[in-house]
Specification:
This protein has helices at 22-37, 72-88, and strands spanning 6-13, 44-49, 61-69, 99-103, 128-132. Helix 1 (22-37) packs across helix 2 (72-88). The chain has a single domain (6-106), classed as 2-Layer Sandwich (Alpha-Beta Plaits). The chain has a five-stranded antiparallel β-sheet with strand order 4-1-3-2-5. Helix content is 24%, strand content 24%. The protein is an alpha+beta fold.
């Protein structure tokens, strides 16, 4: 069953003139997002680094980030509270305009690979980061 959560995708396009400071993003920007938006309901952050297109060419996006909130209204409250600061920080790590989209999950499922038993096993990848916040 899918929860009523809202997932905000933030996509950073990659092109010939783009720059992206991954170290700044990981060490400064995403902790800023966490500090400012956790109080407004941010419960999970994931970001993935593009490594290739299906044909082996360059990826279309340098980074894709997913931010999970309990509702669209919670995300809107976070942006109203500190969006100017968070979005203003983007220029410190990239020269591209991110594409931001609000999404409602429709399907989520795990695929069981042969030999893994009843449940697939999660593996932490070098180029994907996931942080989950547990509210008390």
């Amino acid at each position: 069953m899918i929860s009523a959560m809202t997932i905000v995708s933030v996509l950073y396009p990659r092109h010939g003139e783009s720059r992206f400071d991954h170290e700044y993003y990981q060490q400064k920007h995403m902790p800023l997002v966490q500090r400012r938006w956790a109080e407004h309901g941010l419960v999970k952050m994931e970001w993935m680094r593009g490594v290739a297109a299906p044909d082996g060419g360059e990826p279309g996006y340098e980074v894709i980030t997913l931010l999970t909130f309990p509702s669209k209204e919670a995300f809107e409250a976070a942006v109203a509270s500190s969006g100017e600061e968070v979005l203003g920080d983007v220029a410190n790590f990239t020269n591209v305009q991110p594409v931001i989209q609000i999404n409602q999950p429709v399907f989520e499922g795990a695929i069981n690979a042969p030999g893994q038993g009843e449940r697939g096993q999660a593996t932490q990848k070098q180029d994907m980061w996931s942080v989950t916040h547990h509210r008390r």
